[in-house]
Give the backbone structure.
Amino acid sequence: MAAVGKPELKYAATTSLCVQVRQRALTRLLLALLSGAMLSLPWVDGGLYWSGWIGWVPLLFALHASSLRQAALLGWCCGTVFYIGTAYWMVDFVIHLKGLSLPVSLLLASLFWLYAGASIAVGCVLFRLISRRLPQLDLISFPLALVIACALYPTLFDLRFSETQAAFVLAIQGVDLVGAQGLDMLMLLTSALLFQWLQRDLGGLKGQLALGGSALVLIWFVYGWFALGHWDRQAAAWPTMRIGLVQPNDAPTRRIPAPPEGYSREYPEEMVATRRLSAAGARWVAWPEARYKGYFDQQSVRQAWADQILGMSSDLFFHDVETRNRHATPVSYNTLGWLGQEGALVDQYRKMQRVPFGEYLPDFWTLPGINWLTTRFFGDYLREVGEGQEHVFFPIEGMRVVPKICYETAFPEFIAEAIGSDAGGKVLLFVSQDNWFGESSQPFQHRAMSIVRAVENRVPMLHLINNGPSVAALPSGRAIAGTPAFSRAEMLVDLPYSPTRGGSFFTRHAQHLNWFWYTALAVLLGCALWPRRRR
């Protein structure tokens, strides 16, 4: 038998090593993709909320001992798959927005998924930067790096994983202390704990932190159990007010729609539903966000609505576009108005948090040439509106209704500011028009987001979605009434409220909590990047 020479042995060893490296890289990639899929499940179906607590484990295995470049790539792959599953409705949005073909809409949506997915990549790189120098602090650095990277990454809205937990009522109780971002941290901490237990990497300081982290998770749920019972008992003893919600399920349209056949601006279809709800005892009735109603522009509409409201026993909250002259220049506002029982406009709220590209163009996109491109693409959907200047509330017999429009519900600190320190009797009213996203999971995601805002601030909440599912929720997060999605509906709900109770620790300290998280991450990064002292 011929002896194998040294060159052949060296070649075989090199080939075997290359195969192992490729297999390891493929395994890492598959784990990252699995994490992205698991993390997206609760956004598609809220009943799968448990997946958000363990979905980071495969990514942690993939990131173990990875380089910064590998961490960036793995995080990007995970984030892209996550956004494909979470925001698959971007395809429908682009189709309804521009009437483009499915392939073109899919291409544009893919660009969004790739861009947004990079937020996870940024978090993974930050985590690995810290972990290479301070591996014993992985339980702290992993949640901080990922949550804050997602919060600061420039997208339309901050990403909060805790907003998939609305169906897990016990888990969301603690957000009244630390907000949705605090629950995000806890969910990632749980995955990191599970990873360390599976790795059996629990020696020294890591083991001590693991015990402390496990105790923190236990304390969170014990607090949730007590808080849930407390707020349920409180709500059961409160007075109620009967409220009516009108869900018209308008079709998405890029141009201002004409009234349905048989109706007019002066006599809208929603007014018929309002009359029925008023006759059933509704103290006030709300209409959702709408494309255009004509109330602020047309005297005939104002007069006709006043005449019809006079025949009812309910106040009316409605949404419309309001145009006012400001320094001789017409400015439009996204406005929610309050019509009293006498038919007159009592008060109004102008939307403060505007949607980029939908209600205003960020400065960069107004530059010559680029402005032409954005206007051409967004067309009639791009509707420059003015920025509201102040929070308001509408007082009705001890209840103080705090109105917010569309995705203002996505900003926890903003909603906490609207509730303020004087929260007695306040009730959140969100109105939105989510039909742009088709029959997808997006309206359910929006609904869940609003429920978390109610718990954060410990106030009752109503979210009226044009195409459903609309919901009424208690300060505990329990939904007490709702409507089916993608259908026309009317809802009567006897909503409990307290003229003297409301607000939470988070309501009063929302900004301080944010700075605490940011400072903690900055300290960890500083320690990790500080040059080692030479001997």
Summary: The two ends are 56 Å apart (CA to CA). The first strand starts at residue 240 and ends at 247. The mean pLDDT is 89.
